[in-house]
Design a protein that fits this description.
The protein contains ten helices and six strands. With 282 residues, it is of the alpha/beta class.
Length: 282
Amino acid sequence: MIAADGGLARLLQILLPNGGHVFMSIEAYFDESGTHEGEPVMCVAGFLFEKTKCEEFDREWRQMFADFRVSYFHMTEIEACAPDYCHLGTDLRKALVRRAIGIIKKTFTYGLAVSAETPIYEKLMPAHRLIGGPYTHCATGCMRGTRVWAERNNYHDDIAYVFESGHEHEFQTYEIMSKIVKTPQAKKDYRYGGHSFQEKKKSTPLQAADLLAWQYLTNRKRVLSGGFSRDDFCELVEKDDERFYYWHHDEQEIRYFAGAVKKADALWPLAALEEPPDPGEQ
């Protein structure tokens, strides 16, 4: 939905059978990073926003656009000094990222990031039509993390899920959400209120998810190679901030999960593993 001033309206539209709309109290926005061939790690990450805080986030994010004379936020392009950001120079681009982090930290409810070491996953995980590849694994992990947040915070209202449209794993995302829609207990567990796909350039909360996915993935690769965490990552994901949930699937984790899938298939051939270990207990 486009607002009268041309900006993206903050409230997510969910199409109903009667043609009406419903607005959710919590909105969940997820993006992916590290999906290109040859990447050692893949990540899906995003934020939960309470509706009124998301409206505040959108206003401040758009003011940031005006102040820095940019039309959208894309971490990869900012880091690479792409044409839309090269007028800022190094210091202003760093200031833009710090401003974005400050807006997010003031307005988000919960942040999630799930990553997997792609070559290891593809080597160890048995081919399985219901489990899917590393993207499906990470996206499903974010969904479980959202469910854990809802359970721990005694949240029983609907959650609207939003993903980027047009990315290479959109169909896998559609399959994940379709399984939830078709399963009454899953709809209840995930507080499913609807899902949609939006353009990242038009959805400011998806741009926030892009920032987290890029920062988390970049930091994870640095740590795996023996380096230190980036300052901007540490600013975003403060050590004692309990509003963040992150879970990395290394070789040990993937071996455990692959073994569980094989055992499940031996007992129920064609059945997916219904419930991997609770991510909140890792």
